[in-house]
Amino acid sequence: MKKIFLGLLAVFATLFTSCEFSETIYVNEDGTGKMSLYLDGSDLMPMMGNKLPIGGEEPIDSIVSFKDVLGKAKFNIANLSKEDQKNIKNLEKLNIHMMVDANKNKMNFDVFADFNSISDIKGMFEGMEAIGKIAKDRSAMRASDPLAAVDFDKLTKMDYSYKNNIFKRSFRVLDQKLVDSLKQNLGQAEMLLAASSYKLDYHFPRKIKSVSLKDAVIGKDGKSFVFEVNVMEFVDNPEILNFEVELEK
User: Fold this and answer.
1) More confidently predicted of 179 and 18
2) pTM
3) Which residues pair with 173 in a beta bridge?
4) How many whole angstroms separate alpha carbon 211 and alpha carbon 228?
5) Which residues of 110-122 are buried (b: 16+ CB within 10 A; e: fewer)?
């Protein structure tokens, strides 16, 4: 069982940077809400063959508490810095719905949680970056993943805020030279990324007055929007998913 949990950490850390990705967030009037990060790694299945870090011939369809996952990796977490341990602590609210079926080339993860404030979202993303430090040994995927050894907490920074009817999502590059180097050394991963998408799906308690994303599609209720880009567009310009939404009073 411990092997499955640690394998899950390795898969999650890898898929977080290389798969179909949907970020869905519901925001309530008081700043509470829920989030879901859906990762579809099915396209990676043929590349991994019989070297899947979790599961085997038997399909997996289960919900796992991230608190339990972290408990299984406690000895690894204890070796991290106090800051990283604090960031990982933010993940305890998360649950993971895993669906893995090697026979159907299916590998999906839905990471979801309720949050008490917008700042919790930022904390969860920081925790996801820190969790990658636990999974340094990434089996077969490590050799084909140019991003495997990158410490993303030193590469980028994610911020969220919700004040005075304004919701902001801000993603900043901290080391542009390293980003440029990664883009030049994507190798075979570039084909996978070019065929993948990154989608934002946001829902608010009141109607949207304006959204800074030019091609965002506002829902029929006027309170939500969807925005989707090719992953390579995001790689070329990581700030393309930054946005500001003004809500009606």
Assistant:
1) 179
2) 0.78
3) 156
4) 14
5) bbbbebeebebbb
